[in-house]
Amino acid sequence: MFTEAIEAILRDRATSEAVRAIENGGSAASIWNAVEEAGFLELLTPESAGGAGLPLSSIEPIFTAFGRYAVPVPLAQSIAARALLRDSGVTAPAGMTTLAGSCLRRADGSLKAPQVPFGMICDNVLANVDGALLLLDATQAEREPDGVHGSSCGTLRWRSGAVPVALGSNGAEVLLFSAAIHAAAIAGAMDRVFAMTLQYCNDRSQFGKSIGKFQAVQHQLSVMAEHVASAGMASALAFSGTGAVPERLATAIGKARTSMAVPLIAATAHALHGAIGVTAEYDLQLYTRRMHEWRIADGSEIFWNGVVGSAVLAQEHGTIVDFARTAPHCVAA
User: Fold this and answer.
1) What angle do CA 184, 185, 186 make, to 5 degrees?
2) For residue 288, which of 113, 257, 315, 317 sits 20 to 30 Å off, Cα-Cα?
3) What pTM was estimated for this model as a whole?
4) CA 274 – CA 226 distance, rounded (Å)
């Protein structure tokens, strides 16, 4: 029910024209206000606090939809921030809140948050600082863009006087939630890219028939379909836990698998589209650019495969098959 309602808003507000306008410096208020006014930022907030109280498994299709529409505002991050603030006693601030999974504290007390998603347009940042949870005012930060073309990703720096006291010791959960969100976003974007590629191959004719009927093209589409399906399952796994925050090992598997598929999906989609696929006017690049950025966000597959590998080595008994079968319920090292 919630997924369909949000997708209706996204179809109307998050059009490719609207996304391009925001990338070019336009206002993101139309998309943000529509979702906020509908109350959808409180989907993970407990019912006792006026929210929907959805479990993680129910929020995953919504986060995937945000990737499928290349949503250029931190909707998923703002929803997650409310879940992460659950024990702090602090009400979620007004405006757009994003997540910073890894911050650096300097000797002088200042903070640096590299590659913060939506860091250039957000109002607040919920950050992990050495395991502590901090809510930072983004308007007091020095901002520097560091994302791909058209991205609002940025590195933010706060002077020591602008750094508040910690709200709790659950800062590490910020990284997990942010990584799981990016896994879902990748899965959604891949789904859109595959649909565009399949449609193009059916429409584009060469030598008197659609290129989708050539065996070589069909093979490439089949490989794409396998990876897109795997990415969807990996995203669902990341949100399969019963707690308020994605579990570490499930998140590691989900982020590693989705990130791993990005180069192949993006390269194959552009190869099958040919020259039109690299033009600014064509929508494909709206998704492949983001896929590449989300691949490295919160750690690429290299980092998260290391987490999974540590968990494998930590198990005392059983085979790799046993580990794969029970992995969602294991505790990573």
Assistant:
1) 90
2) 113
3) 0.95
4) 22
